[in-house]
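Example (one chain per record):
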Amino acid sequence: MLSLLPEMKTQHARIAPIAPIKQTFMLLKSFEFSKSRSLTKFWISLNRKLSIKNILKNKF
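Predicted structure:
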């Protein structure tokens, strides 16, 4: 178990920058589907501001 700890730390360090994006996805999923149109506009503006598109292309 102790031998796994250093690996887990490095993995966590790699995952850390993605955490805000995952939180945003969870936030978006929690909204009702009736708000999807305004959410799409919000997501597009968020994409432009934070260039999430480029990040997502690299990760998925």
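Caption: The chain has one domain: 2-59.
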